[in-house]
Write a structure and sequence with these properties.
Blueprint (H helix, E strand, L loop, with lengths): L4 H18 L2 H18 L2 H24 L8 E5 L2 E4 H27 L2 H10 L4 H11 L1 H18 L8 H32 L18 H28 L1
Antiparallel strand pairs: 1-2
InterPro entries: ABC/ECF_trnsptr_transmembrane (IPR003339)
Membrane topology: Multi-pass membrane protein
Subcellular location: Membrane
Length: about 250
């Protein structure tokens, strides 16, 4: 059965909301594992993992600095340098928050790397959403996959002209510096080209629209989307009730 793009978005969004509301380490690990498994099954892991690392490494480091080194509730001191204390409770809290953020990022990236932009635009247009807004939404959701694919093509082109990328973080960072300028310039040029193409196709017109692309949508998937949205709302409500009861 072909998965409707809105069903994939609902599943990813619901999983992200429930994981954030639950704040459970086992659930975060399970969602991360599921996202990686889905990415491997779809064949997008090779492109998704570098993008995930670029997002998660700075976030994980910041969580470690903020919570691991300065956690007021920490009692078990592992090391101390003046006012800076490394506590077991702080490291545990930082690890739990990092796992939670990782689960959310991975499941959203797994969804965005597998989404079909034409299918999503057609599905949104079939529900009365204006074409320009639907295209902007689809492009935003698939921005990281597009950047990753463009960066890969630039790297291959530079390697064919003699660029040698050695192993190691410093060598890769130096190589990325050489790839950053053509990457940004190509993305700016592509944005202008797409804007002209959208205008030529009448995406800004307010009249009725038709689409040659038909995205099948079964009653079962519509019901599943409703259940996913209700589950996310229920998870948020339970979390708010828990905070209200705790206070």
């Amino acid at each position: 059965m072909r998965i409707h793009p809105l069903t994939g978005l609902a599943a990813a969004g619901s999983a992200a909301v429930i994981t954030t509301a639950a704040a459970s380490l086992p659930l975060s690990v399970a969602v991360s594992a599921a996202a990686l498994a889905l990415s491997l099954a779809a064949g997008t892991a090779r492109r998704m993992l570098p993008a995930a690392a670029a997002v998660l490494l700075p976030l994980g480091l910041s969580l470690l600095i903020v919570h691991g080194l300065s956690f007021p509730e920490g009692l078990t001191v592992l090391a101390q340098w003046g006012p800076v204390r490394v506590t077991a409770e702080g490291l545990s809290f930082a690890f739990e928050r990092a796992a939670q953020v990782s689960a959310v990022v991975l499941i959203l990236l797994a969804c965005s790397f597998s989404l079909s932009v034409p299918d999503l635009v057609a599905a949104l247009s079939a529900r009365g959403i204006r074409g320009r807004f639907g295209f902007v939404l689809a492009s935003t959701l698939t921005l990281l996959p597009a950047i990753a694919a463009r960066a890969e093509r630039i790297r291959q082109a530079q390697e064919s002209r003699g660029l040698v990328i050695r192993r190691g973080l410093l060598h890769r960072a130096a190589a990325f510096r050489l790839q950053a300028v053509p990457l940004v310039l190509s993305l700016v040029e592509d944005a202008g080209t797409r804007a002209a193409a959208l205008e030529a196709r009448g995406f800004s017109s307010a009249g009725p629209r038709t689409s040659y692309r038909i995205v099948p949508d079964s009653p079962g998937q519509r019901f599943l989307r409703l259940v996913l949205v209700l589950a996310a709302v229920a998870a948020v409500a339970v979390r708010l009730w828990h905070y209200a009861g705790g206070s």
